[in-house]
Amino acid sequence: MNVGVALFAVLQLASAQGDVRDGNEPLSEHDQRTLRATAEELRAAILREDVEGVLANINREHGLTCTDTLVPYQQVRKDLHNRSSNLYLSLFDTARFSRRCGSEYPSEYPAISDKEFFSKATNGTIEIAPIEKNWAKVTFRSRVTGHYPREWTFHKTARGWRVTDGFIVGRCSCG
Q1: Which residues constitute the domain of residue 66?
Q2: Considering the domain boundaries, does residue 141 fall inside one?
Q3: According to DSSP H, which parts of the chain are helical?
């Protein structure tokens, strides 16, 4: 067998395994319930434009990650209180976010705030997938055409599940 074909087959098999790392156990029922409740609480805080509610669900020790850039909690806090920051706009203000960052998004998935996404995605779904021990990904999917899924990474800490990734911090996009 060609080495390239064999490598491709191995990579395909690995990607079919999903996000769960080797040897990782699925999330317990309790972890699934508390993670879902935390994600819903965060979604509700975004819909209310509740900056403090959003901050309460962010990992204080880790802050947020955007691509490979770690943004400390104190900077995230500062950005959330700045109504002109990309973080604030991407969460709460579609019009200004689109004007500032819209050119970086494809026309089939325009730049919209998370608040607009959640306010219009009333029949959406939530998927929870373990990544590795004490880490999981929550994906919100909308049935609205043009809504790109929202994917948040959570870490389980002594204070419960806290988001660490999935928000636009610093730039116009992450990923």
Answers
A1: 26-165
A2: yes
A3: 3-16, 29-47, 51-55, 73-80, 86-92, 94-101, 114-120
> Could you tell me the pTM of the whole model?
0.83
With tokens 């689109």, the residue in question is 98
Single-letter amino acid code for the residue at 174: C
Select from 28, 30, 43, 44 the least CA-distant residue to 138.
43
Q: Is residue 12 part of a domain?
A: no
Query: What's the gap between Cα 70 and its chain centre?
Result: 14
**Span 78-132, pLDDT tens digits:** 999 999 999 999 999 999 999 999 999 999 999 999 999 999 998 889 999 999 9
For 140, the token pair is: 């919100």
| Type of residue found at 39 | A
User: According to the model, what pLDDT value does residue 171 have?
Assistant: 81
